[in-house]
Every structure is written in structure tokens, then in C-alpha cells.
């Protein structure tokens, strides 16, 4: 199976009735600011360089962001913070992204999530994340990244489970780096959500240091 065929399979997924109902309801009702926009309203596939050495894992599509545009971290405040940082670090072709056909491309980096459908209140259940886990496992198997970047605690816990990382000392802390087998690494960052960026919990300087570390790990 290729990433293309995996993503084609993902688009037909209806494993989680609550998420299917929510993503489609949001796509019908829309937010007033986007009332003329044709919402995606389906599972959002991963995006980026199929030969990437860096795999970025987030939580889930935003109801009026990725669930609207159909591309990870596109069309909302999280993407407005993430893509400029990726551009500064050399992973993105441009610093802004507001729709899936805006010309953005990623170099040596692929973005996915532990849950591919927009959940109510941005909170997928453990069962819903378990239903989506096989897609993440397949993406990792196909891409074989050297560096994993977990954006937020939920993504971190999902990666720890999928990668079967042992040890009680492996805990989520912003900026933490964990060495894995075969020269691979797991890097942790706060999620670039508006809740974190507007409160100063995650600043642009803090985020830039994460991507600087990722580049350093790629050079080892």
C-alpha cells in the first residue's frame, strides 16, 4: 500500500459514528465567516513529503480549519503559527497556508494526526483515537521517519503507544527529546493552538528552538 492508497481508504472511513455526525454537521451548518465556503467535511489525510525524515503528529482537525479546507493545520490559528515556523526552519515552501490548493509544499516533513476527523470540543475519545491508530501505524511504516515531533500531550501519548516506547521517565515536556531505537528521536512541543500561543505558553522563539533541534537531529 502507498500513502496515496492509504489516504484514499481513509477518505471513506466511517468507523466513529459520533465523529462522522459532527464533521458532517459542521460542514452543513458552517461558521458565518465561511458561509460561502464549500466545507471538506470528511476525514483529513496526512500531508507532505512522502520521503520525509520528519513526521509531525497533531491531535485532530479543527472544525472550521482542516475540516473546512481538507488539509492538516490549514485555515485556522494553529496553522497560522505552525507554517511560518516550518518556513523559517526550511521545511515549508511558504509561510502562510489558508487553503489546500494555495501552493504550499513541505520538504522532508510530513504532517498527520492521532485522529483524522474533527471531534466536538477538540476532544476525541480514547476509543475514537484507537479506531484511527492503524492509519498512524501505516504512515510510520511507509515513511520510516528519523524524527517524530509530537504537538501536544495527546499526540505524544499516541506516539508513545504506537512506538511502544518503554520507561516511566518518558513524559511529555515541551522541548524534551527522547532517543529511540535505530537512531530515531521523539521531540515534544506544546500544541500551536490559540490557547497556547495567545497566552504566551508557546512563543515563536520557543517553537523555533524545537525546529532548530529537529534540524540538528537530522544532521547526526
Describe this structure in words.
This protein has one domain: Uracil-DNA glycosylase-like domain (Uracil-DNA Glycosylase, subunit E, 3-Layer(aba) Sandwich), CATH 3.40.470.10. The protein contains eight helices and six strands; from the N terminus they run ααββααβαβαββαα. It has helices at residues 3-10, 17-29, 66-69, 77-88, 126-143, 153-163, 194-197, 204-218; strands at 47-48, 54-58, 109-113, 147-151, 177-179, 185-189. A six-stranded mixed β-sheet has the order 1-3-2-4-6-5, with helices on both faces.
The pLDDT mean sits at 97
Following the backbone from N to C, one meets helices and strands in this order, namely: HHEEHHEHEHEEHH
Global geometry: globular
Helix content: 25-40%
User: Compute the gyration radius: what is it?
Assistant: 16 Å
Unreliable residue stretches: none
CATH homologous group name = Uracil-DNA glycosylase-like domain
Number of domains: 1
Q: What is the strand arrangement across the widest sheet?
A: 1-3-2-4-6-5
Instruction: Report the structural category.
Output: alpha/beta
In DSSP terms, counting alpha (H) and pi (I) runs of 4 or more, how many helices? 8
* CATH architecture verdict: 3-Layer(aba) Sandwich
- Count of extended strands: 6
> How much of the polypeptide forms β-strand, as a percent range?
5-15%
CATH-defined topology: Uracil-DNA Glycosylase, subunit E
Straight-line distance between termini: 30 Å
Provide the CATH top-level class.
Alpha Beta
Sheet with most strands: 6 strands, mixed
Amino acid at each position: 500500500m502507498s500513502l496515496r492508497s492509504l489516504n484514499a481508504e481513509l477518505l471513506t472511513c466511517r468507523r466513529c459514528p459520533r465523529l462522522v455526525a459532527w464533521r458532517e454537521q459542521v460542514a452543513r451548518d458552517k461558521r458565518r465567516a465561511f458561509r460561502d465556503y464549500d466545507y471538506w467535511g470528511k476525514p483529513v489525510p496526512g500531508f507532505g513529503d512522502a520521503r520525509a525524515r520528519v513526521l509531525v503528529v497533531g491531535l485532530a482537525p479543527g472544525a472550521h480549519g482542516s475540516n473546512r479546507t481538507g488539509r492538516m493545520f490549514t485555515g485556522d490559528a494553529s496553522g497560522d503559527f505552525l507554517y511560518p515556523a516550518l518556513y523559517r526552519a526550511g521545511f515549508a515552501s511558504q509561510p502562510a497556508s489558508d487553503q489546500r490548493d494555495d501552493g504550499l509544499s513541505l520538504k522532508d516533513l510530513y504532517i498527520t494526526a492521532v485522529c483524522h476527523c474533527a471531534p466536538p470540543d477538540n476532544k476525541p475519545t480514547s476509543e475514537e483515537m484507537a479506531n484511527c491508530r492503524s492509519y498512524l501505524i501505516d504512515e510510520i511504516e511507509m515513511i520510516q521517519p528519523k524524527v517524530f515531533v509530537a504537538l501536544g500531550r495527546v499526540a505524544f501519548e499516541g506516539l508513545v503507544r504506537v512506538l511502544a516506547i518503554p520507561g516511566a521517565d518518558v513524559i511529555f515536556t515541551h522541548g524534551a527529546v527522547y532517543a529511540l531505537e535505530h537512531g530515531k528521536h521523539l521531540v515534544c512541543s506544546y500544541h500551536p493552538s490559540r490557547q497556547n500561543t495567545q497566552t504566551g505558553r508557546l512563543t515563536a522563539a520557543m517553537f523555533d528552538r524545537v525546529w532548530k533541534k529537529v534540524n540538528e537531529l537530522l544532521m547526526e
